[in-house]
Amino acid sequence: MRLTRVRVPELAAEMTLSGSEAHHLSVMRLGAGDPLLVFDGRGREARAELLTLDSLRATLRLVEEMPGTPETPQPVTLAVALLKGDKLADVVRAATELGVASIQLLVTAHADVRDIGANKLARLNRIAAEASKQSRRAVTPAVLPPIPLPALSWEGQAYVAHPYVHDLLADQLHWESPVTLLTGPEGGFSEAEMEALLARGARGVVLGPRILRAETAPVALLGAIAATGV
Ligand code: SAM
Q1: Inter-residue long-range contacts of 174-178, CB under 8 Å, 24+ positions, other chains counted
Q2: pTM for this structure?
Q3: Percent of the chain having pLDDT more than 90?
Q4: CATH of the domain spanning 76-226
Q5: Mutation test of ligand 1: which of 152, 162, 215 has the most ligand atoms closer than 8 Å to its C-beta?
Q6: 214 CA distance to ligand 1 centroid (A)?
């Protein structure tokens, strides 16, 4: 039987849920004594049992902590340029399913969008939480407020997706240090941005000979990693 999975603020002997998570359980028509899975979004997962439920509040008992779905051997950060419309919602959903540890939004030279409101950022974080629930991850990546590209710092390896280079991610990626992946906006990275990134040690990688849309490139890059089996 596929158990219902809910995110809790913290794993504890007894846990209380309110708001949309409690509502979700009542919509699922669960009742006292039903088994569930709970996760805290920071890597901990457990079997639990529903003690009480109404449409506003649920109480759960922790039965047994268990290992969560494995994460990538090193954290992978997606640094993605702000995109027009609702395209980031799809990027955040797919990137969460594909295992990123965090998502850093970037303001870049050719971006049409230069800021994101607090409500939109909160919605992107809710989408990440929902996607981690669906994809059976115990970790929910944080979607971090936008920073200018020059302010991005990284530890370990950084790869910038760019149509006009020849190197492949698969030939360079290793799991000895954290990984940062950068993808540009609809108008691409400027020449000056590419030069600055390469001068700081990032490596350009290509995703085939076609120009991908700005919302496709992050998924293709992360898919290339997922296809190695991590
Ligand atoms: N006219 C833009 C240019 O010349 O760079 C195209 C930008 S593309 C729509 C948006 C982003 O997707 C790029 O900045 C890059 O990060 C990524 N991208 C698109 N196609 C790619 C490819 N074939 N290889 C690597 N990255 C690609």
Answers
A1: 175/72, 175/73, 175/74, 175/230, 176/74, 177/74, 178/74, 178/75, 178/76, 178/77, 178/154
A2: 0.93
A3: 90
A4: 3.40.1280.10
A5: 162
A6: 6
